[in-house]
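Notebook entry, structure prediction.
Reason for the run: the old model in the group folder had no record of what sequence produced it. Starting over properly, with the input documented here first.
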Amino acid sequence: MATSLPSLPNILTITRIALVPVFALVYIATEGYYWIASMLFAAAAFTDWLDGYLARKLDQTTPFGAFLDPVADKLIVVTALVLLIGNHASLLLTLPGVIIVGREIVISALREWMAEMNRRGLVAVSWMARVKTGLQMIAIFILLANPPVMNRPWVILGLVLLYVAALLTIWSMVIYGRAAWPTLKEGLSENGP
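New structure, fully documented this time:
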């Protein structure tokens, strides 16, 4: 009985998940050399784009990949934001970080619910979510690459981009919520056993 090997896109996604603890340890252990952790984060972010591109180009999309890819994305982003919030210890960074992490949890739960109701397509990834993700990744990369000193120009740029990403996060969450509202309302009005 032959076993099939995972597809290249799925291997990239698994690699991204494996990079999460490595990136976190490097960020914590290499104070003063933040750029090393930021490069690991950038590599993980690049594999996010690459695995999706290859899955479509090579026609290797799989249900496993569709499930695992967003999990990998959330792991790397949430880990990075938690590390940054802890290192910067600033309300200026905590506020957009909490908004972004909170949105990831809510949207994950919403997608799960919609999948249960066989209406997952109503909460498919939008162009705005892609823009938000791009800005968020750039902001996190910049913030990871710099010491936690809030008055540095690069840190200020990273914060501005993170705030823009947080605003887009709220906007995209409203769009997803509107699309899912009829199904949610239907679920709320169901009678229990």
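Summary: The domain at 8-179 is CATH 1.20.120.1760 (Four Helix Bundle (Hemerythrin (Met), subunit A)).
The old model has been moved to the deprecated folder.
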